[in-house]
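I would like you to sit down with the record closing this message with an eye to the fold:
=====
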Amino acid sequence: MSGRLRYAVHVYAWTSSWSSADLPVIDHVRELGLDAVEIPLMEPDEVDPAAIAERAQTAGVEVVTSLALPEGADPADEDADVRRRGLELLRHCIDLTADMGATSFSGVLYSAIGRRIHRRPEEADYTRAAETLKEAARFAQGRGVRIGIEPINRYETFLVNTAEQARALVDRIDEPNVGIHLDAYHMNIEEDGFYEPTLATVPYLVHFHMSESHRGIPGRGTVDWDAIVRALADGGYSGLVGLESFADIAEAMKAATCIWRDLAPSSDVLVSEGLAFLKGLERTYYSSERATIDGDRKGL
């Protein structure tokens, strides 16, 4: 049971629309004891990668980025022009990611978030998504960026809802810098459980949103956190996990997130209590004492 988790937080915990005015959030992330900050690229024209890189370096904070593709820029669309716009946006976001010194770019990168169709997804849908993402991945490799595919719930996408579907798409893309970004909120809706899909995904895993079933403070909902952290430990995962919640209605994500009430007394309380809870589980499941106990049990 070796390894150590690195903890990130999505900036939407404090702001509903990222701009350079929000740079102090990066300093605050370090003050709260986190290792990394997740910058959304939903409004790429508002992102100043040089300013983010400088602020993060000064604060000693790692940067990761994420995106949920908008309508009209869909890698799986039947229209070649829509797929082209999707690829162009992915390339632009990969450049932004690299320019801010980040090496991880993940999210809903295979289809437009919220897109619904009047049929079940077909082989052709996955083929189009994979072909577009293969081009994006090769571009990202040249910039030193790893891509993470995030399965999300049925109400937000028709294409990739489960970890198994994400693994199948990654295998279809077949590029070494493409992995998977899990999210416990979506798993709580779509998976039969938490341990098995998490463990099976560890070899692919680039990021994990530790989001509670109601997107509030981890540990206060219905997510089986013990199963998740135990699976991460059993699989030897030592990468990023991140808190993702939302302080307000983010215009770019309104249809997907549906935040109509306060999820915690404050964003700082949500992050601080959530971080303490997750670190407690890490101490339990990544401990040498647990490894010794498990080894003794196997020897009986």
